[in-house]
Amino acid sequence: MSGYSNLSWGVMTMSFSNCKRWVTGMAVAGSGLLTTLTAVADPVPWQMNLRKGATRISHDIWDLHMVALWVCVALGIVVFGAMFIAIIRFRKSRGAVAATWNHSSKLEFIWTLVPVLILIGLALPATFLTRDIYDTTGSQMTVKVTGYQWLWRYDYVSYDGKPVTKVPTIWSRLAWDSNTARQLGSGVSPYSVVSKNGDHDYLLDVTHPLVIPAGVKVRFLITGGDVIHGWWVPDFATKRDAIPGIMNDAWAKVDKPGIYRGQCYVLCGQDHSAMPVVVKVLPRAQFNAWLSAQENPVTLDKAARTAEVTPSKPGPAKG
Amino acid sequence: MSSTAQAIHHEEHRQSFFERWFMSTNHKDIGTLYLLFSFLMLFVGGGFAMLIRAELFEPGLQLMQPYFFNELTSMHGLVMIFGVIMPAFVGLANWMIPLQIGAPDMALPRLNNLSFWILPFAFALLLSTFFMPGGAPAAGWTMYPPLVLEGGSSIAFMIFAIHLMGISSILGSINIIATILNLRAPGLDLLKMPMFCWSWLITSFLVIAVMPVLAGAVTMMLFDRFFGTNFFNAAGGGDPVMYQHVFWFFGHPEVYIMILPAFGIISEVVPTFSRKPLFGYKAMVYATASIAFLSFIVWSHHMFTVGLPLGAEVFFMYSTMLIAVPTGVKVFNWVTTMWRGSLSFEVPMLWAIAFIVLFTIGGFSGVMMALVPADFQYNQTYFIVAHFHYVLVGGALFGIIAGVYYWLPKWSGHMYSNFWSKLHFWSSVISVNVLFFPQHFLGLAGMPRRMPDYNVAFADWNMVSSIGGFWFGATQLIFVGVVIHCVFFSKQKATARVWDHAYGLEWTLPSPPPHHSFTLPPVIDDSQLAHGDTSH
Ligand SMILES: [Cu+2]
Ligand SMILES: [Cu+2]
Fold it and tell me: What ipTM describes this predicted complex?
């Protein structure tokens, strides 16, 4: 299990150095968006466990998950072990004679009390962590996320204490190559859907990802435009239902730049499996440059627009 | 006794096939009808599951449009819950409760006939929606608005079918309560009843409490869809989350409706083949009752990501974790019943042991999901799919099969094939794990549920799961063969007691029991009770 998480950590470190190279290579404001961000957080074949993810919350959840898992394994060993021993030792075919006792208040007291103590041990850290998950105070950026059948809409609301007014809405739908391949009888293999840097991103890539800065606490206001959807990036452990008429909030502070992928997780109709969530986390300086380029579409480089369409496409900056 | 018995006996001979099976008021015949119906539905719902697993065998769409896939998952859930698990338990209750408490029949025999015969009509309505314009309902068995309201007029049929199923199970439960409270043989105190009766008595109250809640939820949905109300429509001032609260107020007790009777069956089977009284009988009764009570105050653990207030998240986390305590008591007591017993491993015992292991695994993932932060990663993924299939297939279904293998010789008067029933067991218990265990991995890797298609990284475990699925599905055909052979062709006569250490009133009757049994109440001998002497 840990092998997988090591693997994704390796990929993550690699991509980070890529980013740094690009940051130094592109000092020109407005062109910083053209980075080769390797996907740092794709699911991998035969993956068996949660990934640790890229936020403090996702790490803490991973720890809690592992503790709970090992507690269950330990209890399983005790219970199934006792049963196994009984099955081996107390067989009628081996001449076992049944005892006649049928209760023991002491035993029953113990196995009521011990589970209670174990559960308290799990519930306490879980309570504090839940409080952290709910604590959206101190965020430096707010993005509104709206789910529609079958795409995501992202509106920047505020950043650094100032309202963001001029950045156009991002409409984030399934990437076209995935969309072609996913049709019944398309004849296109899902394995052939590969991003420029070799990721198999079938059903996990979008036309325009959400772009957020690294190292910044971002608050997401999540709602639904038609039916209920669910906005989830597993590596942020940021997950909330997108419900019409209700504005939920959640947050993430991602330190490592990269491309993070998730999916709509609440059944929302026929193309439920075709509305991925892709978040591109840029180093802060690059993000600022990207944002001001968005705010002034005149200076928005043509190449930059192209790069937006295929986020993982490597390419040099203008000039 | 003789004159009434003879009169009844005479009547039997005059019964035509139609009279016997369609107008029956006999608890055994109605029990048989329930069991046959749920057996049939097992293959309908199982057929849907096979199609689902076939589409999920590989990434990409090979067989069906995604909308049809959603119809299949929705109907699979509804059929399995309301058409297989619940009717099978009612069938077992019909057969066994009068025999176990020494009653001549159910307390309300005509009602009994009605509550069964509603079901085929309900399911005919429900399944007919596949052939309607717009197709069957496709919003999942949970039927969340607003999505469900996008469905065609077929949702009216689904809602009416659910009303009928609700009426059927409420009437069935009223009958069970009336029977248990009024028709116990003299001297058979409540705390001398077999655990199966106890678990059904408690389950019946759950059914009566929550089926009307479901009926209310779907009726509000009906009004929203056809009569212009806005209960769940945010644009009209309604609240889609309110539906989820109402639904899960039904839904969580419902999961115990589907498992408590199985607990009862296991509590019968394990002592029989351990040749030792059930450990902690009274604790088992109290544990069952506390599980039932707690099941009313945990519903929002299905909704940890809808944006509940922090206090609610924490409350529902604690209450959910609390359920693990009485549930743990049950598991510990079964294991302790086996401890220092004299075990033999006839087929019912094999299923019971598999039940304990698989249900406990499902319980473990349940505890993990009770932790709110962890649930943020598990919610609506294949992890929950794995969880509830462990408790509903490895738990409820395996419990039912254990019960069928336990009592089938009593019902039919014949033994079934040892070889084929063991093959059925081993093939099922291996394939069910190949089918569902990898789904934990898929969920942890981030694959959401209810998806006809997925990224290639999820391909391998999905293929393993599908292979397990086809294997498990095919294995159940052996079950059909074993049952048909046992009922119609087996030459091996069953004794009255069938199993050498089977105690309880049902085993004092010949196998098969006469069409009308216990026309005079039996005399209760405490040493013959299923769980031994509980006087201390
Ligand atoms: Cu969606
Ligand atoms: Cu529940």
Answer: 0.93
